[in-house]
Design goal:
- This protein is of the alpha+beta class.
- It has two domains: 13-184 and 298-304 and 377-447, 3-Layer(bba) Sandwich (FAD/NAD(P)-binding domain); 195-289.
- The protein is 27% helix and 23% strand.
- The protein has helices spanning 26-37, 78-88, 96-100, 112-125, 173-177, 208-215, 253-277, 309-313, 400-406, 409-427, 438-447, and strands at 13-22, 42-45, 62-63, 93-95, 108-110, 129-131, 135-141, 146-153, 156-167, 182-183, 195-198, 227-230, 237-241, 285-289, 300-301, 321-325, 329-332, 339-342, 347-351, 359-362, 374-377, 389-391.
- Strands 1, 2, 6, 7, 8, 9 and 22 form a seven-stranded mixed β-sheet that branches.
- It starts with 12 loop residues before the first strand and ends in a 6-residue tail after the last helix.
- GO terms for molecular function: 4 iron, 4 sulfur cluster binding; metal ion binding; oxidoreductase activity.
Length: 453
């Protein structure tokens, strides 16, 4: 490969802070806000024009249940719950469990445009210094610590120096540059391009999944499985995640580019199919496309503890637990249509989609008592190699089935909150996140509104 030498240049330090968060998804925002509310000086860097990540730019407007599997005990609160309450004041959320009285893991449907504004408010209220339209481009490393990170935006290249860094980039960009071991799963879960469509309510009993199965090939669509849902306050508009882009790693530039364009092509194919085969099909309109594709999985970063499949499936309790979850194991097939769902009660469900019947079986024998939730330990946010780096979000170190459950937003949001609190705790000690007492983190999380079990 041919190379070009870039002349060395002096990079101005544009910010010095206690904590620097890279990535402005809800996970990253919640990390920044929790640290700032405790008194830390915090900077957050986001490459998009708004905060919220896949929830906002990706249009994925679902947050899952805050309760255990039996809906008897609330297990998640913190900033996820606070945001839900804030959105309720603007009629920007549908509480499925409360309004419909159903046992549905897809518990909340969000107006993600309102969420963008509420996240801005959250950042400003906490006095976090935000940088939007800003790309992380590299790190300056010391012996076992990060000395600075480099960013690039409309003002040019700059450096941010902090005492603690939180990688909430999703792909583990800072972690990889810091020399931490990154790996990919053998069966990486594929991404989905989402869209908002007007007029689906005008199509009568038109069965979109069945028609995709029947006519999808005509429009260049593979056999696939998808889902869709309501948007608060907009009965004529619905969110659709109907397809996947297979065999890609969206942390690789060429594959990310292909995925974005292929995802949009698939959405147009779905629209063309509806226009041709649905009654009143010509009345529908494409309202909005995701500004980036909904990525489920790329790199995982090796931590002090790799979450095991059995930890999730059998509800292992951790003394250093910083997050609780009840979302089912949800494996989007990487090489065939559908998903496999595993529940904590021992039932397995295979969903082929597109009108095909679901398959039910057991992944383990029946037991008298079933776990109702699982946990994520603090150790899974920490590496042995770098003393001032925490990781939060979907780069979590986890086996395949464990990851497919913990990857959803209400779970990763909690890892962000824990990272923010742990960063603050480390500032009062020796600055080494590896030495943080998890009990101190758990105590402050609870005092800040999280549910600690």
């Amino acid at each position: 490969m041919d190379t070009i030498m870039e002349p060395a240049k002096s990079i101005p330090v544009i910010e010095e802070a206690d904590v620097c968060v890279l990535g402005g998804s809800c996970t990253g925002v919640f990390a920044a806000v929790r640290a700032a509310r405790l008194g830390a000086k915090v900077v957050i860097v986001e490459r998009q024009n708004s905060f919220g990540g896949v929830a906002t730019s990706g249009l994925v407007n679902v947050w899952h249940s805050l309760y255990d599997n039996e809906k008897r005990q609330q297990i998640i609160a913190g900033l996820s719950y606070e945001m839900i309450e804030r959105l309720k004041k603007r009629d920007a959320i549908i509480d499925v469990e409360a309004t419909l009285g159903v046992n549905d893991c897809n518990a909340y449907r969000l107006n993600t445009e309102e969420l963008k504004i509420e996240l801005d408010n959250l950042i400003l209220e906490a006095k976090v210094k935000p940088y939007l339209h800003t790309h992380y481009v590299g790190a300056k490393m010391g012996q076992d610590a990060i000395e600075a990170v480099f960013i690039h935006n409309k003002s040019g290249r700059g450096a941010i120096k902090a005492k603690v860094y939180i990688d909430a980039t999703g792909d583990g960009d800072l972690c990889r540059d810091a020399g931490l071991h990154a790996y990919t799963a053998e069966n990486m879960q594929p991404p989905t391009a989402c869209a908002k469509i007007y007029g689906m309510n005008l199509l009568g009993d038109f069965n979109l999944p069945f028609m995709l199965q029947k006519h999808g090939e005509e429009f260049g669509l593979q056999k696939d499985w998808g889902w869709r849902g309501k948007i608060p306050g907009m009965p004529e508009v619905s969110m659709h995640a109907e397809t996947h882009v297979f065999d890609v790693n969206c942390a690789v530039a060429d594959m990310l580019t292909y995925s974005e364009m292929e995802g949009r092509r698939q959405i147009r194919a779905v629209m063309d199919l509806i226009r041709k085969y649905a009654p009143n099909g010509k009345k529908i309109s494409l309202v909005n496309l995701c500004s980036y594709i909904g990525i489920r999985e790329t790199y995982h970063i090796e931590s002090m503890y790799k979450l095991k499949n059995k930890d999730v499936l059998y509800g292992t309790r951790f003394q250093d637990a910083i997050a609780n979850g009840s979302y089912r194991v949800d494996i989007h097939h990487s090489n065939e249509p559908g998903i496999t769902l595993r529940y904590l009660n021992g039932v397995e469900e295979v969903v082929r989609g597109n009108g095909m019947p679901h398959e039910f079986r057991r992944w383990r024998e029946e037991t008298e008592v079933n776990p109702t939730y699982y946990q994520i330990p603090y150790r899974s946010l920490v590496s042995q190699k770098v003393k001032n780096l925490l990781m939060a979000g979907r780069m979590l170190d986890a086996e395949e089935e464990a990851y497919s459950a913990v990857r959803v937003m209400v779970n990763t949001n909690q890892t962000g909150e824990a990272a923010g609190v742990a960063a603050y705790v480390s500032l009062a000690q020796d600055g080494d996140v590896r030495n943080v007492n998890a009990n101190d983190v758990r105590k402050l999380l609870k005092e800040g509104g999280s549910i600690i079990l």
